[in-house]
Amino acid sequence: MILEAIEDQKGEDLSEADFRLYDDIDPDALDNLFRKDANADTTVEFNTDDVTVTLRGDGTVKIRVEPRDTDN
Predict the structure, then answer these.
(1) Rounded distance, CA 37 to CA 64, Å?
(2) H/E/C letters for each residue in the chain?
(3) pLDDT of 72 higher than 60
């Protein structure tokens, strides 16, 4: 789901790019944070490639991907 959201934002197929999400974030750690019995108020934000990914749990997981602000 995260990879597809990043692909949608970037408008490219990342399976053919030199991009590996696990270089920037541990998928097992994300699974643990957002498992069914986890705190519903969990939010995780991380940068990968040139986007910022925000995951928010509220009983479900919502994913937001937006271009990273590189001015800072």
Answers:
(1) 22
(2) CHHHHHHHHHCCCHHHCCCCHHHCCCHHHHHHHCCCCCCCCCEEEEEECCEEEEEEECCCEEEEEEECCCCC
(3) no
**Token pair of 70 as six digits:** 């590189």
What six digits make up the tokens of 22? 């696990």
What Rg, from alpha-carbon coordinates, does the chain have?
13
| pLDDT value for 50 | 87
pLDDT of residue 31: 84
Are 67 and 11 in contact by the 8 Å Cβ rule? The answer is: no
What is d(CA 69, CA 22) in angstroms, rounded to the nearest whole number? 21
pTM of the model: 0.79
Position 45 pLDDT exceeds 90: yes
Query: Which residues on neighbouring strands pair with residue 66, listed in sequence order?
Result: 52
